[in-house]
Recover the amino acids of this structure.
C-alpha cells in the first residue's frame, strides 16, 4: 500500500493537517503517516524513528502555514535553526530520499526562499509548491492528489472502484455476489457465492459494498 508522510507543526497547521489526512484516506485509502514525538516509545531514538517512517513513504508533504518559517522555541530561537528540530529532521530525511517532496502552502503562506532556510533544507525552496486555500479547498486538493498520482504512482481508491477497473485488497476478506472470474488470488467459494480474498488480490467489476472487512491500514495520529 502507498504511504504519504505528512510533516507539519502543530501550532502552525494542525487543523489543516487533520482535514488533509481525512481527504487522503478517502481518496487513496488510509495512507497518511503523521509523525509526532508523542508517538515515539520512551527511550527510542527519534531520529531513527523519523527515518524509519519516511523510509516507508512514497511521497512526503511539507505543510507550510503562516508561522512555519519563524516558529520559535521557549527561549525565542527559531526552531528550524536547531539541528535537532523534529520538523527540520523530517524534511531533511525526506529530501535525502528519491521520493517526491511537495511543499503545501496553507493559510496564505508564501514559499520560503533558500536563503531563509538552514543549509540542509535549502533544496526544499526549489520544489514546486501546491497551495491549499480554504475558499477552493476541493479544487486545490485535487491538484495535489493529481501530483501524487503522477509523481508517486499512487492510485485513488474511489477512482478504481467507480469504473470497475479494479480494487486491491488485503487478506481474509469476503466478497459476496461476485463471479470467481472477477477475483484473482482467491481460495474456496463458488461462483456467485462468498470467496476468501488473499493478500494482494485484484477485483474487477466489484462494488465496495460487496466487500466485508476491508482493511486500508491505520493512520498514525498527530
Amino acid at each position: 500500500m502507498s504511504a504519504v508522510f505528512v510533516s507539519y507543526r502543530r501550532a502552525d497547521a494542525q487543523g489543516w493537517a487533520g482535514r488533509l489526512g481525512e481527504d487522503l484516506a478517502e481518496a487513496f485509502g488510509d495512507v497518511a503517516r503523521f509523525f509526532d514525538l508523542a508517538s515515539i516509545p520512551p527511550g527510542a531514538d527519534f531520529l531513527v524513528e523519523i527515518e524509519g517512517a519516511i523510509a516507508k513513504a512514497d511521497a512526503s508533504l511539507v505543510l507550510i502555514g503562516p508561522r512555519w518559517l519563524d516558529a520559535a522555541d521557549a527561549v525565542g530561537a527559531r526552531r528550524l535553526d536547531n539541528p535537532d528540530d523534529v520538523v527540520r529532521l523530517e524534511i531533511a530525511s525526506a529530501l535525502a530520499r528519491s521520493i517526491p517532496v511537495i511543499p503545501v502552502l496553507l493559510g496564505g503562506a508564501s514559499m520560503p526562499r533558500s536563503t531563509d532556510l538552514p543549509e540542509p533544507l535549502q533544496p526544499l525552496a526549489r520544489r514546486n509548491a501546491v497551495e491549499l486555500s480554504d475558499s477552493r479547498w476541493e479544487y486545490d486538493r485535487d491538484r495535489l492528489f493529481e501530483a501524487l498520482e503522477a509523481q508517486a504512482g499512487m492510485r485513488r481508491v474511489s477512482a478504481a472502484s467507480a469504473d470497475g477497473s479494479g480494487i486491491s485488497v488485503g487478506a481474509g476478506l469476503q466478497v459476496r455476489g461476485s463471479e470467481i472470474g472477477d477475483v484473482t488470488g482467491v481460495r474456496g467459494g463458488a461462483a456467485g457465492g462468498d470467496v476468501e480474498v488473499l493478500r494482494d488480490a485484484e477485483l474487477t467489476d466489484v462494488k465496495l459494498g460487496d466487500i466485508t472487512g476491508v482493511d486500508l491500514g491505520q493512520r498514525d495520529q498527530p
Summary: DSSP finds five helices and ten strands in the chain. Residues 158-212 form one domain.
